Amino acid sequence: MTTAMWFTPSFTRHPTSIINCTYNHHHALDASYVKRAADLSDKSACFTSPHPNFGCVIATARNVVGEGYLYAQGTKPAEVQAVEAAGEYCRGATAYVNMEPGDCHGDFTAVSAFIKAGITRVVVGIRHPLQHLRGKAIQTLRTQGLQVDVLGEDIPSISIQDALKSCLVVNAPLLYRSACRVPFSVLKYAMTLDGKIAATSGHSTWISSTKSRSHVFELRGRSDAVIVGGSTVRKDNPRLTPRHGSGGHLPMRIVMSQTLDLPEVANLWDVREAPTIVATQRGARRSFQKFLASKGVEVVEFDSLNPKDVMDYLYDLGYLSILWECGGALSASAISAGVIHKVHAFVAPKIIGGKNAPSPVGELGMVEMTQALELIDVSYEQIGSDVLISGYLQPIPDMTPVIPSVDETLAIDPSLSPYDSPIIFFYKTWDPYGSFSNFSSHPIRLPDENGDCVTWSSVQHYYQAQKFVGSCNPNARNYIEVIRSAKSPEEAAQMGRRTQREHPDMVRADWESMKREVMYKALKCKFSIYPHLNSMLLSTSGSILVEASPHDLFWGRGRDGEGLNYLGRLLMKLRSEFLGDDDTHKLEILQGIENFNNINI
């Protein structure tokens, strides 16, 4: 008996410490690949915006066999890129994503890629923060037999904290937008060691080092808009551009001024390089508003000009990230309004003094040091001779607010459904019914001016290029090819709009009368090629479709509903035609699928 006990192999008892060590090792490996996916997803910054950041890594054992990241909304999903790169090595492999797939509502291209490729396990950094997408891909993958593990849920080990933080940070704008219903806002300023942003005279060029200014250019390139006040325009005459040359993302430049006491000559009024919006009080200096409009500057009036209302407006525009580069009075107002989420403070090793020299943040009404706002998750970085201090005024939301699901709503009252609305709004691709957007990732195939079938990466690519088809200017043909080759719908739109604005002689003479027909042809092709889009469109029967852009008064509804909503109208017309002639509709779908199978991109 004693001998038997002596010879019982100790490893058959599976000591808890050994098991935990093994689990922690696997968890650490999972976390490292998810963090790599998050780092990959950040590569799309400074190119096109706004869009969520997706990255994907596919690995077998300890080897990475494929990876990819979403370049912009309407481009090939990161998951599809990774699957294509991995090829046959996908079978039995694990896919790692920083965020649950779901760039476009109603589009399961990424999920289907994993299933068809033979991926057996998917590790997800965070669930999708948008309620209508949250959990959908995870549930679909699990239904298809794939093992899905989510950091912090299925993998609770402390070894994943660093990876989880990377996933939250890289999509902080989307998380804040979802939870707070305003864009993610960063306050940036440069100050001397004694806390001044300018001399008593107002002179402020330059407080920070050349390297710090380059860092600011990068921050601008990552933002959808940059905000300044009227005093900054008067004193500094800024350009507010990323200075990265051609090909990068150009943020909207926004000036907040109640009285429009602004100079007639300013760099911001030159919109050839980047667009500008001036936000002002309703009725302020009508003559100057007309002057700005003549320069191509958009003027937006508010009943009461304040940071919260401006952020609500930018939220409606679909913006994710805003950079504030304003003076102390406006920054204090924005902080007090609760719309500032993060601070970047560049501290230069200089002392300028001055009793009345301005500071980066004006009066907040605090009288005791115990009232001071403290930054969260503070970091310090030396940039040139300066020190960059960064931190959050509000913690990054790790999930969307708890909103009752459809099942929960029906359980409370079976007669209610949150999706039974007579009006359906759509705008950005990640919104509900986002596939209706011209920026969605759905290639179409249509004949060019010579009758040859050509593949266009999106409806937006096709529409923008058609502006120059048949133009009397022989150079217009070059613009068509450049637009068709644009990497994303956003870039195609920028190219088409900029060329139309700067070179009106390139635009075809009949464009204004033909643009609705051009759009309709592209939409009909799109909704005939893709059965799931066709089903989604038909499911809206009885509802009014409204393109919710507050910006576009022709294709969208406009800010106050004054827009013509022609995109919504064309979709409703198309829906009516599909529903009205079922046999013809089926034939068009079959023909569309045949054309789709011939698309080679």
From TrEMBL:
Protein name as it appears in the record: 5-amino-6-(5-phosphoribosylamino)uracil reductase
SUPFAM superfamilies: Cytidine deaminase-like, Dihydrofolate reductase-like, YbiA-like
Organism of derivation: Helianthus annuus (Common sunflower)
UniProt catalytic activity: 2,5-diamino-6-hydroxy-4-(5-phosphoribosylamino)-pyrimidine + H2O = 2,5,6-triamino-4-hydroxypyrimidine + D-ribose 5-phosphate; 5-amino-6-(5-phospho-D-ribosylamino)uracil + H2O = 5,6-diaminouracil + D-ribose 5-phosphate
PROSITE patterns named in the record: CYT_DCMP_DEAMINASES_2
Gene Ontology molecular function, alphabetical: 5-amino-6-(5-phosphoribosylamino)uracil reductase activity; diaminohydroxyphosphoribosylaminopyrimidine deaminase activity; hydrolase activity, hydrolyzing N-glycosyl compounds; NADP binding
Keywords: Glycosidase, Hydrolase, Multifunctional enzyme, NADP, Oxidoreductase
Principal EC category: oxidoreductase
